[in-house]
Amino acid sequence: MTWTAWRLSRSTAIATAIFAAVSVVYLLWTGSQLRSSFASTGLQACLAGGHIRQDCSEVAYNFYQLTRTLTGGQPVVGVLSLVPGLIGAFIGGPLVAREIETGTLRLAWTQAVTRGRWLTTRSLVALLVVIVGVAIITAALTYWRWPLDQVDGRVEVNGYDVQGVIPFAYAILAFSLGVTFSVLTRRVVPSIAATLGVFFLVRTVLETVVRPRLLSPVTLSFTGKPPENLDVLLKGSWLLEERVPRPGSRFPTVYTFQPAAHFWPLQLREAGILLALSVVAATFAFYWIRGRMH
Amino acid sequence: MSVALEATGVGRSFGATWALRNSSLQLRSGSVTALVGPNGAGKSTLLQLAVGLLRPSEGSIKVFGFTPGSSSKALGQVGYLAQDHPLYRGVSVADHLRMGKDMNPAWDDEFARAHLASLDIPPRRRAGALSGGQQAQVALTLALATRPALLVLDEPVASLDPVARRDFMTTVLTDAADRGTTVILSSHVVSELERVCDHLVVLTAGHVQVDGEIDTLLERHRLLVGPSGIPRPHVRQVLSETVTDREATLIVELAEPVADPRWTTSPLSLEELTLAYLRDPEAGSRYHPLRSAGGTR
Predict the structure, then answer these.
(1) Pick from B54, B75, B76: which is nearest to A294 by CB?
(2) What pLDDT is attached to residue B27?
């Protein structure tokens, strides 16, 4: 069954490989330019001296100017951060639905392989394609992001979404939702549409509502003069709230943020939630085709 | 004599509509059964129940004692060819064989290769690039190479030209003869089935109307022609009658030989017999050949 599953995923694998290759070429090309301007503007040296972005604002401005003209800058990551979910949805969504549409499911389900084993093997092989594709793109994005990680850290949204285990977890969720809607809708286009709809809803809720609360944020409160180590504490953090009173006011200055050190704990917790949702979706699909699709 | 397929009061509904209702039939192991009926009579539903693609809404169906589709062993005993003989369009013929081998423990690769070679089907061609007749032959080869004990064919020749039809049926019958495969095939072209099949099941509006050995059925049905005034012979049922001033023409199921010499009797072809039943959905004839032949169940 493994060979069959691979044979039927082969064209998807080739398409994914081509997409990944194009992304890698682009990211390596612009990434190397990003790195050289990071060094040439003096921003790298400024940050290495223990300063944060705000202290190096002059050279940082030059870096951002260069970045914008060289690469189009930040928007690239904004688009590529959606890629893991899209790969998962576009590979998972048609998995069963296409076989229903072309009639080949009646060929597949009358071989000496039970439906449960058929779905499991087909899904795992297709999921492997998704994971390899996401791994290649994530590796290239991590290379690309490096200078920006030095400037902005990687806990804030743009860095967090494209690095670590989160791209994989989102891809797996999109794929599992795809397989589930594939057996529910029995049609390729509605399946992909429903998958993308639910996926982006889940992602938005997790990103805006759940993620900031996964770990208690750090709150820093002081009146008057800021503490000596404020820069160190805030460096590379994800600032959730900043309350700065008018000068001379009696009210304290309050910073609420997820510090840089929370990157992995946050990623692992969020990935755990995503994997649990994926398991629920996949289990539903498995029992649906064994019980209801008769 | 053993039973290959046994359906007991089996029925299947789709929403509020019943495609098949309370139907019982038995297929003798090694028999070749024609499943005949108008469009929408429930033929495809019955065949999909037999291969486990559908589950019955009522009653039960067993194939060699197994619930169809319940395990890889149950699946392995049945070969199925759907109406549109589906293949993966972008996948080559050779890779279809490799997938067949990958999924079926009893796969006969030598047969599959030799058979496709004898039909001049190029193994490296994509399935989508083959002619309709060739696709049907490839799909049939895939079903036969799994070495099934029961072969289920849904309208196998409906989309084929006459030459391809003959080639296709030759392949099926050769296999049935060589290996003793039990075959059930649905069709609405009755004329071709007479020389091919030994058992007939007529399905009308979701019900089994006729279920019997073709030889027995032909023996028991007659076309009677006689003067219009004379008394009717004792028969089990009259399927159709045409009476003019001078002459009466009846299609009947006999209860006993017609003694009155004023009736001329002649045998029916399978097609005439089937049509007589299809025109009269209330009529029914069952012979339960397995039970009458000693009740082996």
Answers:
(1) B54
(2) 93
User: Distance between CA atoms of B50 and B46, rounded to whole angstroms?
Assistant: 6
B residues 129-188 near A, CB within 8 Å?
139, 142, 146
Q: Quick one: B93 exposed, middle or buried, by C-beta within 10 A (0-12, 13-18, 19+)?
A: buried
d(CA A204, CA B84): 44
Q: What's at A275, amino acid-wise? A: L
Average pLDDT over residues A69-85: 73
Q: Is residue A231 part of a domain?
A: no
Residue of B nearest to A2 (CA): B102
Distance CA B54, CA B152 (A): 14
Query: What is A177-217 written as a DSSP string?
Result: HHHHHHHHH-SHHHHHHHHHHHHHHHHHHIIIIIGGGSSPP
Order the strands of the A253-258 sheet from edge to edge.
Answer: A218-222, A253-258, A238-243
Contact at CB, A1 and B75, closer than 8 angstroms: no
Contact B75/A at CB under 8 A:
yes
Question: HSE (CB half, 13 Å, CA atoms) of B139?
Answer: 31
Whether B70 and B62 have beta carbons less than 8 Å apart is answered as: no
pLDDT, one tens digit per residue, over A240-282 is 888 888 877 788 889 899 988 999 999 999 999 999 999 999 9
What is the CATH class of B3-211? Answer: alpha beta
Task: Give dist(CA A234, CA A219) in Å, integer.
Answer: 11
Return all residues near B61 (Cβ < 8 A) that are at least 6 apart: B5, B6, B7, B8, B10, B49, B50, B67, B68
CA-nearest of A61, A77, A63, A13 to A33 is: A63
Number of domains in chain A: 1
Which residues from chain A sit within 8 angstroms of residue B78, using beta carbons?
A: 110
Q: How confident is the model at residue B288 (pLDDT cuts 50, 70, 90)?
A: low
A177: which 2 tokens?
């939702």
Contacts of B79 in chain A (CB under 8 A): 110
B63 token code pair:
């194939």
> Residue A257 in 3-state DSSP?
strand
Q: Take residue B190 and report the two structure tokens written for it.
A: 């009755």
Considering the domain boundaries, does residue A227 fall inside one? no
**The token pair that represents A93 in the structure block:** 């969504």
Contact yes or no for B268/B236 (Cβ under 8 A): no
Amino acid at A236: G
pTM of the model: 0.90
Higher per-residue pLDDT: A257 or A71? A257
**Two structure tokens written together for A229:** 């180590």
The two counts, helices (H) then strands (E), for chain B are 9, 14
- Quick check: is A174 in a domain? yes
Sheet with strand B17-28: strands edge to edge: B17-28, B3-14, B58-63
The residue-averaged pLDDT of B41-54 equals 95
3-state secondary structure of B241: strand
In a domain, A108, yes or no: yes
Nearest to B76 by CA among B107, B32, B53: B107
